């Protein structure tokens, strides 16, 4: 099988990611005369990718990979990546000589082609590879024992050596497939043996493959050194089955690697720890990718917030102009209808802009700000019911109060919560049944319930119902007349949590849909120290 590294001019063809420790391959499209993409071929690769290509025999053309034992990445998916620009992340499996390697393949559009990063596999794949590695480790031990026992005859000795070489080769490939640095700590002598693929021992080379634990400790980042070392000591002295820690580890070139370190203890017949075996996974590229995604998300949210703020001025001008037009056209019914339609549309736009600004505050400012003061929740409920009854004259809203309803909250924000929940119930509930709003006292909590009969919310949607830009599938059913961005329930949850409370939903064919809001009596104390768990609703 011809490897990619055999391509002429590959090494200098691409430089942006040449120094990255993660394997990266640049693919360019192969087009038909009409311009359609038929395939992708390797245009360049960094030094880390050369080892992967050589060891696993990857072909230059992407369409040839399945025949070479590679599964998980299709040409059609890469064509779609080039058309949409949406990054692609798939598990990639490579099989050679009976040994599997697994990667998390992340493809990002680069010019007309794409850059393919071969990152460590997700935890499920990594666990399977570690189990393979442990089996190969045991095979190597058996081969070593067979070699010792076979010295009586030359034939047996040669056969044992061949078996050992085969086990060593499988072990090397399995170790490389895990993308981990493996370590074996003898607690009696204090010696630690490190095993890794060439160039993967964080740049220290084979001379440092055996040393004391102090060699590791001094290379842990100073901010995390004491916690990591203390956690390891506590684990050895405990009866726990496994140890795990995340920290930064100093590479040979002076840079820091983010690592996930895990280990298990072996004990003697008396239960005393005698040996610890573990692995260090380099998570640096994954951390960088997450940081880039987080920064992009923050930028988008800042942009949306600025856009929403700047839209308010022209929207106010539209609303004022519509009111002026309505006043001047008091005797012209057509003009009156047009002006009212403009005002209603502007009001809906204003609600959307307010939702966008609340989303930005919740994501970028640590939560929605509150103006806390003594409030009678009965008054707030009645105000919301009156407003929605005027907007939905054909529907009936039943309101019931049980016990006290006074506390310290933000009245405007709670009116926003009730308007969203009751408005959703009017919109999505059965059109011939009333919406029920209850305000109840439960111990130290004030509880609000909004119930509507009708088709239940599908069970898979309940887990993500309060996420931003989510709407139930019934939102566009016959008779529905409202529209929005899908931010209402997200903002409800943010407002309630800012008060130190909780909101939950239950939905069934028999009982309909019920949203339950639980609020502490005094939001000031709850925000200072939330020590009591809110009830999950009636």
Overview in brief:
The protein is of the alpha+beta class and 538 residues long. The chain has helices spanning 47-56, 75-84, 123-149, 154-178, 213-217, 222-237, 284-328, 333-364, 377-391, 411-428, 459-462, 488-498, 523-528; strands spanning 24-31, 37-45, 70-71, 88-96, 99-110, 113-119, 180-186, 191-195, 210-212, 242-250, 256-267, 273-282, 373-376, 397-402, 406-409, 435-442, 445-452, 502-508, 512-520.
| CATH level 4 superfamily of the largest domain | PAS domain
Fraction in helix: 40-55%
Largest sheet: 6 strands, antiparallel
Low-confidence stretches: 1-16, 475-482, 530-534
Let me know the number of strands: 19
CATH class of the largest domain reads Alpha Beta
Shape: elongated
Structural class: alpha+beta
What oligomeric arrangement do these chains adopt? single chain
Q: From the 3D coordinates, which CATH architecture of the largest domain would you assign?
A: 2-Layer Sandwich
Radius of gyration: 32 Å
Number of helical stretches of at least 4 residues: 13
Straight-line N-to-C gap: 66 Å
Q: Remind me, CATH topology of the largest domain?
A: Beta-Lactamase
Major sheet: order of its strands?
2-1-6-5-4-3
Question: Please, could you describe this protein's structure?
Answer:
- The chain is of the alpha+beta class and 538 residues long.
- It is 42% helix and 26% strand.
- The chain folds into 4 domains: 4-121, Beta-Lactamase (2-Layer Sandwich), CATH 3.30.450; 125-287, PAS domain (Beta-Lactamase); 295-364, Helix Hairpins (Orthogonal Bundle), CATH 1.10.287; 373-528, Heat Shock Protein 90, CATH 3.30.565.10.
- The strands form 4 sheets. A 6-stranded antiparallel beta sheet has the order 2-1-6-5-4-3, sandwiched between helices.
- The radius of gyration is 32 Å and the shape is elongated.
- Residues 1-16, 475-482 and 530-534 have low confidence and may be disordered.
């Amino acid at each position: 099988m011809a490897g990619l590294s055999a391509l002429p001019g590959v090494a200098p063809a691409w430089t942006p990611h040449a120094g990255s420790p993660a394997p990266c391959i640049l693919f360019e499209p192969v087009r038909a005369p009409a311009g359609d993409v038929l395939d992708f071929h390797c245009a360049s690769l960094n030094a880390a990718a050369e080892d992967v290509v050589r060891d696993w025999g990857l072909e230059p053309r992407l369409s040839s990979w399945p025949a070479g034992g590679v599964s998980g990445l299709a040409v059609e998916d890469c064509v779609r990546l080039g058309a949409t620009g949406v990054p692609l992340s798939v598990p990639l499996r490579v099989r050679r000589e009976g040994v599997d390697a697994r990667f998390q393949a992340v493809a990002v559009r680069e010019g007309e082609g794409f850059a393919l990063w071969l990152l460590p596999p997700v935890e499920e794949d990594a666990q399977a590879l570690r189990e393979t590695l442990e089996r190969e480790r045991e095979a190597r031990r058996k081969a070593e024992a067979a070699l010792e026992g076979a010295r009586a005859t030359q034939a047996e000795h040669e056969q044992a050596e061949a078996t050992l070489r085969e086990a060593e080769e499988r072990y090397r490939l399995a170790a490389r497939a895990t993308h981990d640095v493996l370590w074996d700590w003898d607690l009696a002598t204090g010696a630690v043996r490190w095993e890794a693929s060439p160039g993967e021992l964080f740049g220290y080379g084979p001379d440092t493959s055996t040393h004391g634990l102090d060699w590791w400790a001094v290379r842990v980042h100073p901010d995390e050194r004491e916690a990591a070392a203390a956690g390891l000591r506590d684990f050895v002295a405990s009866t726990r089955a496994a140890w795990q820690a995340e920290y930064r580890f100093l590479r040979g070139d002076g840079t820091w690697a983010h690592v996930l370190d895990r280990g298990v203890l072996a004990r003697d017949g008396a239960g005393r720890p005698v040996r610890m075996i573990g692995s260090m996974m380099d998570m640096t590229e994954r951390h960088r990718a997450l940081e880039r995604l987080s920064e992009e998300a923050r930028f988008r949210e800042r942009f949306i917030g600025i856009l929403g703020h700047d839209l308010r001025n022209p929207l106010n001008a539209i609303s004022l102009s519509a009111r002026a037009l309505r006043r001047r056209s008091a005797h012209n019914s057509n003009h009156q209808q047009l002006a009212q339609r403009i005002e209603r549309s502007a009001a809906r736009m204003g609600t959307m802009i307010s939702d966008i600004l609340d989303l930005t505050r919740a994501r970028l400012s640590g939560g929605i700000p509150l103006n806390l003061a003594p409030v009678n929740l009965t008054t707030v409920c009645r105000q919301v019911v009156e407003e929605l009854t005027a907007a939905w004259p054909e529907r009936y809203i039943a309101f019931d109060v049980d016990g006290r309803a006074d506390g310290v909250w933000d009245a405007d924000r709670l009116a926003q919560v009730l308007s969203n929940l009751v408005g959703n119930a009017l919109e999505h509930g059965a059109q011939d049944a009333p919406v029920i709003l209850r305000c109840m006292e439960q111990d130290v909590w004030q509880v609000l319930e909004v119930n509507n009969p009708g088709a239940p919310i599908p069970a898979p949607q309940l887990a993500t119902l309060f996420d931003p830009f989510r709407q139930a599938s019934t939102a566009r059913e016959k008779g529905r007349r409202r529209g929005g961005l899908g931010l209402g329930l997200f903002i409800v949850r943010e407002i309630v949590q800012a008060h130190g409370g909780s909101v939950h939903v239950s939905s069934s064919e028999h009982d309909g849909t019920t949203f339950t809001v639980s609020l502490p009596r005094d939001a000031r104390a709850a925000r200072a120290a939330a020590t009591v768990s809110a009830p999950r609703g009636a």
